[in-house]
């Protein structure tokens, strides 16, 4: 694999991130420890070093499996990201949320499960709409100064709040968020309205979760010539079927799997992007890793953009309309290029 810098930091991470939400067999699904170890081995053998987990994944089992794995491998080779926010026990009213008390408790528990002295990247998992953003950033900065965390990041939070936080951090001399984790794929592009432009402005790397749309973009739900689908996914509708059919068509032209096309598309959108690829089987991971060798032509990208485009709303649509005159004084007019 090639390596990319994470946001405006000097941290080098692999061009694909391994999602470990499926490490553990709680809830009747997932990879057992032996399989999880084999998946991480295969990922590392391919040059992958970027691992993504969270305190709540498989009730903490994901972190425990990674921790046991790291005991017999080079900890410094791997860039380990975990998260805090969601409830991971029933001990007290502050066992969830973005507050400093939960942050500090969660990090200490994660360090124990991961059997490590430091976390490379700490994400706020999801915005609680309660905690002041300055409390979050000061807490993360304190953890960084203590050497327990190397970099701050944020996930599933409104763009205006992230922008406020990074601006405040810059003013106060605190560590800024270097990465933004959001759902993003050919069938989920609504983050292009505010979140992704914000990330681009601040030089943040976007780490999309569900870049294959929960498996929809792999084409596995398409059945028959008429594109009949199985109804169990909330992401399945007529629009996603049309998109997936286009992905499958391009994949056929290139002689690759549809998932390779869908993953590559996310990395060609004009901003720093490292998709998170989950796996519960070694063969599944190896298949997804083949995506790094796929080359999409400008024509392929245009076709995918057209079939999956969304209404950006105001002011996004206003800005990208051809011929919009952008001058408040009316003395000079310039054509605004299409997005």
The radius of gyration over CA amounts to 21 Å
What is the name of the CATH class of the domain at 3-181?
Answer: Alpha Beta
Task: Give the helices and strands as they follow along the chain.
Answer: EEEHEHEHEHEHEHEEEHHEHHH
| Helix count from the secondary structure assignment | 11
Extract low-pLDDT stretches.
224-229, 325-339
How many beta-strand segments?
12
CATH architectural label of the domain at 3-181: Alpha-Beta Barrel
Question: If you consult CATH, what is the topology of the domain at 3-181?
Answer: TIM Barrel
Question: What assembly state would you assign to the polypeptide chains in this entry?
Answer: single chain
Which sheet architecture does the biggest sheet show?
8 strands, parallel
Structural class of the secondary structure composition? alpha/beta
Helix content: 25-40%
> Kindly, what is the distance between the CA atoms of the first and last residues, rounded to a whole number of angstroms?
30 Å
Annotated CATH homologous superfamily of the domain at 3-181: NADP-dependent oxidoreductase domain
**Net shape:** globular
Our estimate of the beta-strand percent is: 5-15%
Mean pLDDT: 92
Widest sheet: strand ordering: 9-8-7-6-5-4-3-12
InterPro entries: AKR_Detox_Biosynth (IPR050523), NAD(P)_OxRdtase_dom_sf (IPR036812), NADP_OxRdtase_dom (IPR023210)
Protein name: Aldo/keto reductase
Keywords: Oxidoreductase
Pfam families: Aldo_ket_red (PF00248)
